[in-house]
Write a structure and sequence with these properties.
The protein has about 220 residues and is an all-alpha fold. It is about 60% helix and about 0% strand. It has one domain.
């Protein structure tokens, strides 16, 4: 049985930082857009994307922050791939993370209630971002098995993925479990953002691989 680690490349650490920065700045962007909202804003009834719609006082803040989130997900996901063994689930997980990033960029580019195709692009982009993020975490959790670099993190990753995917199914079916449509949508997004915010911290705690260190154990990408 092969065990990978316990070191990680510097580029993968940089990828984790990008994911963390993207997640944190998006949460801040949402908070700012909500504070500047004119009138009453309901976390249970207002969708997240309402903050970027035509009625939002700081729509540009939200739309720019979600685009930055998407760019960080794409760049961070690409670099994060070096933190996993080259297996099917790691490839699928990173591919879904990149897809989620593209979806996030589209969410900010085609805001809610925008005239393009009657807003269908925005709806499709949101689903792509959410579903891609949930599947990415589920696949990456499987890719973390028998990899000592992810000890203590793989269960958290799987739980985040399952919560997001379950919440997506409830949201799409119109079952809000007392949270309202806005609350259920936030339950979809929160695990992905929390995972992204913590992955950078986790990777910084792992020793950095140096190819010129003769005692360093072999890891993926070290050849």
């Amino acid at each position: 049985m092969t065990t990978f680690g316990p070191m990680v490349r510097r580029s993968a650490k940089a990828g984790g930082v990008l994911l963390a920065v993207g997640s944190v700045q998006f949460v801040l962007g949402m908070a700012i857009a909500q504070l500047l909202w004119k009138g009453s804003f309901s976390l249970s009834q207002n969708y997240i994307s309402d903050l970027g719609g035509p009625d939002a006082a700081a729509a540009w803040v939200f739309n720019d922050s979600v685009r930055i989130l998407g760019l960080c997900a794409i760049a961070g996901g690409y670099l994060l791939y070096r933190a996993f063994a080259p297996k099917t689930f790691s490839r699928l997980g990173v591919a879904m993370l990149l897809l989620a990033g593209l979806g996030a960029i589209a969410v900010g580019t085609f805001p809610e209630q925008s005239p393009e195709l009657g807003g269908n692009i925005h709806a499709l982009a949101s689903l792509t971002a959410f579903l891609g993020g949930g599947l990415a975490l589920a696949f990456l959790a499987v890719a973390m098995l028998r990899d000592t670099r992810w000890d203590g993190y793989r269960l958290f990753t799987m739980l985040c993925g399952l919560v997001t995917l379950t919440a997506i199914a409830l949201l799409v079916s119109g079952r809000y479990a007392g949270l309202g449509p806005g609350g259920m949508e936030r339950l979809v997004a929160a695990p992905i953002l929390l995972w992204g915010a913590l992955v950078g911290v986790h990777l910084q705690r792992i020793a950095t691989y140096h190819p010129d260190t003769p005692t360093a154990p072999p890891i993926y990408g070290a050849e």
